[in-house]
């Protein structure tokens, strides 16, 4: 019998390559950062809604872009980014840190999750300033944090429903909001939705705080045109198209974005295909 080769078969080799490329996008491999290992002592149980939603790479990327575009329509959130962030020069680094926070608080050991939350709270306490009209702002404002949270939660869930599980039961969707509320409350957000109806109500209430601005449009253009290091340009274009398609019409108008027409169909098909491939690669 010939000796067994240690070389993986072509399918396994491709799977390992895909996993490696994705992990390189979301982890600072140059500094030795490793993916967050799922813990049995996390804030949330295995196979619970928040862990299912946040485990899907493509859904989180599409939802993350949508959420960020909506967040930048809030003048306080936008000004905090403009005054206290190197977003323009290090967009990938900021997005990577956000993804790391979500991964640790969703899948990591509960002690590590709370450390991450405390760290973010310390950072937010230093983010203060003044809007162009003279209004003071702070990143610890509960109402601003509520907007950041509700659009993030809605966006992640919307992308998951569109690309992964359209028939996700309503009670599981409501449980997703209840679970995500644990993190939002620890960050100081108020009000925080506990189900789909409350999320819609809070969204409608906080929408009155939004403002269109050249700066918000600039950030939107930056998010939609730049791509993460190591990711093909076509991937960012497809993800961005899907995120824009999922935006409410009023938000597209405020950001100067057009609803994708027939071009959205290939983008949606490509996103679905990427999602299926990556779920196979990570064997979810």
Automatic annotation (TrEMBL):
The Swiss-Prot or TrEMBL record annotates one GO molecular function as: oxidoreductase activity
Q: Which InterPro entries match?
A: MPAB/Lcp_cat_dom
| ER-bound oxygenase mpaB/mpaB'/Rubber oxygenase catalytic domain segment(s) | 53-272
What name has this protein been given in UniProt?
Answer: ER-bound oxygenase mpaB/mpaB'/Rubber oxygenase catalytic domain-containing protein
Species source reads: Erythrobacter litoralis (strain HTCC2594)
């Amino acid at each position: 019998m010939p000796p067994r080769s240690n070389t993986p078969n072509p399918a396994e080799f491709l799977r390992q390559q895909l996993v490696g490329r994705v992990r390189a996008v979301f982890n600072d491999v140059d500094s030795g950062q490793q993916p967050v290992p799922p813990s049995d002592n996390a804030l949330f149980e295995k196979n619970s809604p928040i862990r299912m939603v946040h485990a899907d790479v493509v859904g989180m990327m599409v939802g993350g872009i949508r959420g960020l575009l909506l967040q930048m329509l809030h003048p306080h959130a936008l000004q905090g980014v403009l005054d206290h962030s190197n977003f323009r020069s290090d967009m990938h680094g900021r997005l990577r840190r956000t993804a790391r926070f979500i991964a640790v608080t969703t899948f990591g050991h509960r002690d590590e999750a709370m450390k991450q939350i405390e760290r973010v709270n310390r950072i937010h306490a230093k983010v203060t300033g003044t809007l162009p009209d003279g209004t003071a702002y702070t990143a610890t404002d509960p109402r601003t944090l509520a907007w950041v949270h509700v659009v993030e939660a809605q966006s992640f869930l919307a992308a998951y429903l569109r690309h992964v599980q359209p028939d996700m039961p309503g009670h599981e969707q409501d449980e997703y909001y209840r679970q995500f509320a644990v993190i939002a409350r620890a960050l100081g957000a108020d009000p925080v939705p506990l189900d789909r109806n409350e999320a819609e109500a809070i969204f409608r209430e906080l929408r009155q705080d939004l403002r269109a601005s050249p700066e918000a449009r600039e950030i939107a253009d930056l998010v939609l045109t730049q791509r993460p290091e190591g990711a093909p340009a076509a991937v960012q274009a497809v993800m961005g198209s899907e995120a824009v398609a999922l935006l409410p019409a009023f938000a597209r108008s405020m950001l100067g974005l057009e609803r994708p027409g027939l071009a959205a169909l290939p983008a949606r098909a490509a996103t679905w295909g990427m999602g299926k491939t990556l779920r196979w690669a990570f064997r979810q």
